[in-house]
Design goal:
By secondary structure, the chain is mainly alpha-helical. 37% of the residues lie in helices and 0% in strands.
Length: 93
């Protein structure tokens, strides 16, 4: 009967295609290359405080029934502005 060889340890690197000089050089080159986020034309991720601020600003709508809209407080002339604010969804209700 032939003795079985012990299986290779899970933590030990296996020699082969992934353990070559070309692979090591490709990893080094990729680490030295500029990040894709730093390239022109890309946007940086917004922070938590910026997201909170933009969410609050997007949700800030006045109460149109109290005259809190653009053009409010002009008497009868503010009626078209009130209707436009209602149609655009700029009112809190």
């Amino acid at each position: 009967m032939q003795a079985r060889s012990a299986p290779a340890e899970a933590g030990a690197p296996q020699p082969g295609i992934l353990d070559s000089a070309a692979t090591r050089q490709a990893i080094i080159d990729a680490a030295r290359a500029p990040s894709l986020a730093a390239l022109p034309g890309t946007t940086q991720p917004v922070g938590q405080t910026q997201r909170l601020g933009s969410s609050i600003a997007a949700g800030a709508h006045g109460d149109c029934d109290k005259g809190e809209y653009a053009g409010g407080g002009m008497g009868l002339l503010s009626l078209p502005f009130w209707a436009a604010a209602k149609l655009r969804g700029d009112c809190s209700r």
